[in-house]
Amino acid sequence: MHNTQINRATGAAGRRPAQAATALAAALFLLGCASTAPVPTTELALSAAAINTAVTAGAPELAPAEMRSARDKLERAKAAVTAEDNTLARRLAEQSLAEAQLAAAKAQSSKARNAAAELQASIRVLREEINRQARP
User: Fold this and answer.
1) Which residues does 101 contact at the CB level (< 8 Å), separation at least 6?
2) Which comes out higher in pLDDT, residue 6 or 49?
3) What are the Cα distances from residue 62, in Å, to 79, 90, 110?
4) Torsion, Cα of 51, 57, 62, 68 (10° steps)
């Protein structure tokens, strides 16, 4: 009887490492499923809105490289969502947002430089007119 008890104890102890390994694998699998990044819907929407703002600001003409990059990254972000790579999708959407904001800023800066140049030209013409009228 004593030998039977030893065999039972050894058999149960022999199964414990296998059971522990199975439980560990299951826990890691569940942890992996739980840590899947959510779809970056907010980032995608913000990027699309920033692209629209940049278009309104004239960026396709005044900052074409940045606009192409913003649009390309947004499309790649959408493709990453389809491929269920939400971490990549979030990163691309954030990069797209930054590119679109840069494009809008460049467009606005270009417009401001052009307006300043036009104002300087107008001032020059007015000074010339004043100088001409001041001469007898």
Assistant:
1) 50, 54
2) 49
3) 28, 27, 7
4) 10
